[in-house]
Write a structure and sequence with these properties.
This protein has 702 residues and is α/β, with parallel strands linked by helices. It is built from 25 helices and ten strands. Strands 5, 6, 7, 8, 9 and 10 form a six-stranded mixed beta sheet that branches. α15 (373-390) packs antiparallel against α16.
Length: 702
């Protein structure tokens, strides 16, 4: 009897541990990382020639940039679906390799080499396992039927562009119908998945551009009992979501969703749906996988500075996961990032115009479009402060709070007495607190000594008829002693900080410098062999120069064919995510979201200082009015002929170069400069500019 009790107890313990492990990834979510050995199929894709299949270029770029996910719980879930669909096709199953493409769009892709990519956005939007299985069956059909563009170019010499367009794209539309038919009849039918999900999956595809859910964004999300925004900051009604079922597909590469739906349902009616299921794997596994994908989409929006989508989708997820640490910190991150863009004068890259948005999310875009710079900063500070008080040991949150305090009280020149200690709408005659009515209550210290004295003698700030919403946004924070200390530090140390920053080269004395892959763009092409070759030569030159100057250069490799472990691959992925964050931040000085995940990369590389160069070279037209004018002017002056002839014969390049050295752990820039030059010797000017900047940095100049 005792033995049986012990067995039951051990079994219950194992089950509880398993459930805890299943729950853990969501409750303590961190951005997903690939796991295990680097897959041979991805190595094969890297080695494949673009001549074999032009799609190989796209796939190789995704792998090289670390945008493919393998070995995670999400991958295993997809593999088990493929096992169900191909249980009667074991040979075909061996040819196929499924990976996740980390983008929020609802889509999937199949490649000639047997690689099938499932977008993170698809995992985030489907409503059951069978819907996902149908999309995977569709992609398997593309592979098994050897689908792809015809590759035939129109031989027509007419100017009938519509006919030419239809000729080159009609084949793709036929393939979509065929993939639905073959996927349904040959793979989906041979599994136990229910045909009843066809309506659902076509709805997912039909409204693929919408957020994770449609939940009203209430004013209480951005207001408190202490303050409120003006009424015109909120829409009374949002725009209805357009019915896309009647879209004409004449000029689309894919057929109308309703046509595909009708054809698939007509075929499904010829099959029996008896004993078929929406879930074959445990239902809770599906929702756990979908939640991971949804959190990952939020992560994508933060890295790409798409803060309107981040804010709304965080709002959706918070209905299911209230007081979730990752979501709270991510909301603070999104508002902080938006406030930094607003301080630069432009939030258009972070928030779509509200008229281009439909459904409940439109309320977010409208609200963000109405806020002023101080309101952005203060709302971000409120969210960041709340998260920081819960996690005072978090260095990222601490740096965000300090940066926002500096922005408000130093950059925007706000005073502590600008922020009231009483809720908006409070009347002076209603205040009974005698300490608040002292004569010096609203006096502003005139110098730093008075400010120092007032630190321990704080008087409440009374309401003022001139106060607006911003003046009441810190009511519940204003009297916090830690907050007052941060404000005092920011204001008192501002001048000292600027002085130290102006005379420092690399203050930590670390001359180890990571030389990142330069971004080299020639004319309208940014991925041509010539651009890549110039970028590689520039990186090599930078590495040699740093070594000669006494520093240590650490190159980030172009070729990842030698990658064997997930640790190596994940470091490449992290580095590329950080560069995406930096590029979308337009190199502004801020605490970048991805910096908090870069400790492992810094340890692996031996430095957190990264040098990045952006070069854009535009070839001017060979013939121009200026060249002609100089040539005509030189006719009566023979001594100008050599100059005018040289100017006419050799092309000129308009070159823009940006040179940045930043610490990817702190987001602080040691160097940020650039130049623009018009000259026939573009490459020489770029090399000289980069060399001089490296020399100044290594030798401690500013």
């Amino acid at each position: 009897m005792k033995k049986n009790v012990w067995l039951v107890w051990i079994f219950a313990l194992c089950v509880s541990i398993g459930l805890a492990q299943n729950a853990n990834p969501i409750q303590t979510f961190k951005p997903l990382r690939s796991e295990g050995d680097f897959p041979p199929s991805l190595n094969e894709a890297l080695a494949a020639s673009p001549k074999d299949n032009p799609h190989n270029v796209f796939l190789k770029n995704l792998i090289s940039e670390g945008k493919i996910l393998y070995g995670t719980a999400l991958n295993l879930y997809i593999d088990r679906i493929a096992d169900q669909l191909l249980a009667q096709n074991p040979d075909l199953r061996k040819e196929l390799h499924f990976y996740i493409y980390e983008v929020p769009e609802v889509n999937a892709y199949s490649y000639k080499n047997g690689v099938i990519l499932v977008n993170m956005g698809l995992l985030a939007q489907v409503t059951n396992e069978a819907e996902l299985a149908f999309v995977i069956a569709h992609e398997i059909a593309h592979y098994s039927e050897h689908h792809g563009t015809s590759g035939k170019k129109s031989k027509s010499k007419s100017k009938d562009y519509i006919a030419d367009y239809m000729e080159s794209h009609q084949y793709s539309r036929e393939q979509e119908f065929a993939a639905d038919r073959v996927g349904l009849a040959q793979f989906f039918k041979n599994s136990s998945y229910s045909f009843e999900v066809l309506d659902g999956i076509y709805d997912v595809l039909l409204y693929a551009n919408l957020p994770l859910d449609e939940i009203p964004f209430e004013r209480s999300e951005v207001e408190t009992d202490f303050y409120s925004f003006p009424e015109n900051y909120f829409l009374k009604t949002v725009s209805a979501i357009t019915n896309r079922s009647s879209v004409v597909d004449t000029f689309l590469t894919h057929p109308n969703i309703e046509k595909r739906r009708s054809a698939a349902k007509a075929l499904a009616r010829t099959f029996s749906n008896e004993n078929r299921k929406k879930f074959i794997q445990p239902e809770e596994d599906f929702y756990r996988i979908r939640d991971l994908a949804r959190f990952s989409c939020v992560e994508y929006y933060l890295v790409r500075h798409q803060y309107d989508r981040a804010v709304y989708n965080i709002h959706v997820l918070q209905q299911q996961f209230p007081n979730h640490d990752y979501l709270d910190i991510s909301l603070a991150t999104a508002l902080y990032g938006a406030s930094k863009h607003k301080s630069e004068g432009d939030v258009s890259s972070t928030c779509k115009p509200y008229k281009e948005v439909e459904g409940e999310m439109q309320q977010v875009n409208y609200f963000l479009s109405k806020m002023t710079r101080p309101e952005y900063s203060l709302l971000a500070l409120r969210k960041a402060w709340t998260a920081y008080r819960k996690h005072p040991e978090d260095p990222y949150l601490e740096s965000v709070v300090k940066d926002l305090v500096k922005d408000i009280f130093v950059e925007q020149k706000k005073k502590y007495s600008d922020f009231c200690d009483y809720p908006q709408g409070t009347k002076l005659e209603d205040i009974t607190d005698t300490a608040a009515t002292e004569n010096n209550a609203n006096k502003t210290p005139v110098n730093k000594y008075d400010r120092i004295k007032q630190q321990n003698h704080y008087s409440k700030v009374l309401p003022d008829p001139k106060f607006k919403t911003v003046n009441y946004m810190l009511v519940d924070i204003h009297q916090d002693s830690l907050f007052r200390e941060l404000v005092n530090d920011a204001t008192l140390n501002a001048e000292t900080y600027e002085l130290l920053n102006s005379i420092s080269g690399h203050p930590d004395g670390n001359k180890n410098l990571v030389i990142d892959k330069p971004y080299y763009k020639i004319s309208s092409s940014n991925s041509s062999p010539r651009s890549l070759r110039n970028a590689k030569h520039l990186q090599n030159m930078m590495a040699r120069s740093v070594s000669k100057m006494g520093g240590k250069a650490i190159k980030t490799d172009f070729d990842i064919s030698s990658i064997k472990s997930s640790e190596q691959y994940n470091n490449i992925a992290l580095m590329n995510h950080w560069m995406d964050d930096l590029n979308h931040g337009e190199y502004m000085e801020m605490r970048y979201h991805t910096s908090k995940y870069m400790d492992e990369v810094a340890q692996a590389l031996g430095s957190s200082k990264v040098c990045h160069v952006f070069v854009s070279r535009q070839v001017n037209r060979w013939f121009s009015f200026n060249k002609l004018a100089l040539l005509m002017a030189s006719v009566p002056c023979p001594y100008l002929w050599p100059v005018s002839i040289t100017n006419s014969v050799f092309p000129k390049y308009s070159t823009k170069s940006v040179f940045v050295i930043t610490d990817f752990l702190t987001g602080e820039f040691d160097v940020a400069t650039g130049f623009r030059q018009e000259s026939p010797m573009s490459k020489a000017y770029v090399n000289g500019f980069v060399y001089s900047q490296l020399e100044d940095y290594i030798k401690g100049k500013k």
